[in-house]
Amino acid sequence: MKRISCIDIGTNTALLLIADLDPKTGQIIPVCHKQTIIRLGKNVDEERQIGSEALHRLVSCMHDYGRISAEYSSATTIAVGTSALRDAKNRDAIIEAVAEATNIKISCISGHEEAELTFFGAIAGTNEIPDLFSVIDIGGGSTEISMGTPEKLTQSISLDIGSVRLTERHFTTLPPSPDELLAAKETINATLAAPTIPFLAARENVFGVAGTLTTIAQLSQGLRHFDAEKVHHYPLSYAEVRKLLEKLKTSTLQEIVNMGIPEGRADVITMGTLILLQIMRLLGIGEIRVSIQGLRFGLAQKELHRLQKNI
């Protein structure tokens, strides 16, 4: 058994998974989960720079995750950054600053790597996986869609439509104006149109990961607080997503917070829901199976396979 810490540093949220890896049984046994809203990608779409305040939030979070990892006697820490780091011109300086302050070395992974790790992370430990399926990951800065079999990823795309990126680009207030909603929808549709056609083949078996999907699953069930057991594997229908968007697009930030969504996600969940609805509409997806797993589980699985090769 080996205990590791896997950290997924996204545009909006940093996620920590501490897990025991058993190379003999092939099991990933979660020991600790934590998520922190850091909004690393604030203004990155426009300025292509990660600002000093965002860096401070990231360093503080990594200090916290390093402390937790030490408390749990984690042997290895694997940290990766995604869309915000990919887009930032000062990413090398950010990575260096975090390493100097916390001894945590962040790797900036490509959109394809992110999609592949998320694809296998979403189904880790899941029984009765379809022969062909797809995974949708709506993040703060980008959206990844991947498709394949339980053994192999066959196709993936990474698109620059994320909940933070498009909220900053299109919405000036909550609720957004009808013109702002229309402009956002046009941007999403134009981005999705051609690249998503191959994924029609797997529209009957779709998994959805990351904060947008899990938050929508929480809201759709009327939960005031996140409940992992009720959200994981929740069958989220197109009708539910459409109904929720109708409510969100007329709601103020405070009204969304009052639904049980923290402020760091409440201001971007309307856009995230719009992105999901357009994906489901364009691909004809009737239902998505929500997974609380994702990239960090993919990192754990990759390390598990490395250990198994060395047995």
From TrEMBL:
<dbReference type="InterPro" id="IPR050273">
    <property type="entry name" value="GppA/Ppx_hydrolase"/>
</dbReference>
<protein>
    <submittedName>
        <fullName>Ppx/GppA phosphatase</fullName>
    </submittedName>
</protein>
<dbReference type="InterPro" id="IPR043129">
    <property type="entry name" value="ATPase_NBD"/>
</dbReference>
<dbReference type="Pfam" id="PF02541">
    <property type="entry name" value="Ppx-GppA"/>
</dbReference>
<dbReference type="GO" id="GO:0016462">
    <property type="term" value="F:pyrophosphatase activity"/>
</dbReference>
<dbReference type="InterPro" id="IPR003695">
    <property type="entry name" value="Ppx_GppA_N"/>
</dbReference>
<feature type="domain" description="Ppx/GppA phosphatase N-terminal">
    <location>
        <begin position="26"/>
        <end position="306"/>
    </location>
</feature>
